[in-house]
Design a protein that fits this description.
By secondary structure, the protein is of the alpha+beta class. It has a single domain, classed as Roll (2,3-Dihydroxybiphenyl 1,2-Dioxygenase, domain 1), CATH 3.10.180. It is built from 5 helices and 16 strands. The strands form 2 sheets. It has an 8-stranded mixed beta sheet with strand order 2-3-4-1-13-16-15-14. A hairpin with a 2-residue loop joins strand 6 and strand 7. The longest helix is centred in the last third of the chain and has 13 residues. It is globular. The N and C termini lie far apart (44 Å). Keywords: Dioxygenase, Oxidoreductase.
Length: 308
């Protein structure tokens, strides 16, 4: 069993409009845009990162906004709901805030003994807020959020699966411990914040079709490249097809497809989002991967202008 995985690193999804996406995360949810760059494989498409002040692993939601992309069809074989942690007692204020901003799909419920507020993103993305007592993470309040309400980072993600068995076995190998099962959902966790994964068993649901509002992949955090190579070797030794290490500028990444269909990434906590921008100005300038820097004049002219 591995011990290098330290919970979630980031979650990457797709959207249909960059400006709408940016406004939702920075204004409605009050997160900080910590990086404005482009998709490595499609440089005419943004890659936008949102999180806390420095983009701490476990706080970062990222998006590929493909212009006018068709909506995804939810189903199995993908991440279902991305859940953020907020202070205990803040959910009522969040309900009022989201309602006032026209957010849809609001539903209050209790899950595993925790109060949560479900809601939909601009592309039908499935999100929730969970009230957590004494989450030690510092929130970003630079967008005008009250510190007593602001998002602290990820709480968990859920995965919709036709059969949880092989994915549960994989997560156990990755160091996750099964905590509890309720109503067709199994909760696993590693110690610390952003450490929870919920597996939803849906044997009669068709496989999802990715599009705007779909999660592209979920990334797990390791401290450094040495730990990442240890994880890669262990996964390959157990039969998983894992990519070589890929330099993503702000972290190094490896990817593999899980038995249940979800794309996993293992990402390093180094070097971080301040490697090419001062912390005070994260996410302001368009940053380009080395192989796309010659495209700057074209990209600056053609990429959609963002607010803020």
């Amino acid at each position: 069993m591995l011990n290098q995985i330290k919970g979630l690193h980031h979650v990457t999804s797709m959207a249909a409009d960059a400006r709408t996406n940016n406004r939702f995360f920075t204004d409605t949810l009050g997160l900080r845009r910590v990086k404005k760059t482009v998709n490595f494989d499609a440089p005419d498409v943004y890659h936008l990162y949102y999180g806390d002040e420095t983009g701490t692993p476990g706080s970062v939601m990222t998006y590929f906004p493909f212009p006018d992309m068709a909506r995804g069809r939810p189903g199995t074989g993908e991440v279902g709901t991305t859940v953020f942690s907020v202070p205990e007692g803040a959910l009522g204020h969040w309900s009022d805030r989201l309602t006032a901003r026209g957010v849809t799909g609001l539903k209050a419920e209790t899950s595993f003994g925790q109060n949560r507020l479900n809601f939909a993103g601009p592309d039908g993305d499935a999100f929730a807020l969970v009230g957590i007592k004494d989450d030690p993470r510092a929130p970003w309040i630079g967008n005008g959020m009250d510190a007593d309400l602001a998002i602290r980072g990820f709480h968990s993600v859920s995965m919709r699966l036709r059969d949880e068995g092989a994915t549960r076995e994989l997560l156990t190998f990755m160091g996750y411990e099964t905590l509890e099962s309720r109503d067709g959902v199994t909760r696993l966790a590693v110690p610390g914040t952003a450490g929870i994964i919920d597996l939803e068993t849906m044997p009669n649901i068709a496989r999802g079709q990715q599009g705007a509002g779909s999660v592209h992949h979920v990334a797990f955090a390791v401290e450094n490249r040495e730990k990442q190579l240890e994880v890669r070797k262990a996964l390959m030794d157990t039969g998983h097809q894992v990519t070589p290490v890929i330099d993503r500028d702000y972290f190094w990444a490896i990817y593999f497809r899980t038995p249940g269909g979800v794309l996993f990434e293992i990402a390093t906590n180094e070097p971080g989002f301040d490697r090419d921008e001062d912390t005070a100005h994260l996410g302001e300038a368009l940053k380009l991967p080395q192989q796309h820097k010659h495209l700057r004049p074209i990209l600056e002219q053609n990429l959609q202008k963002l607010d803020g």
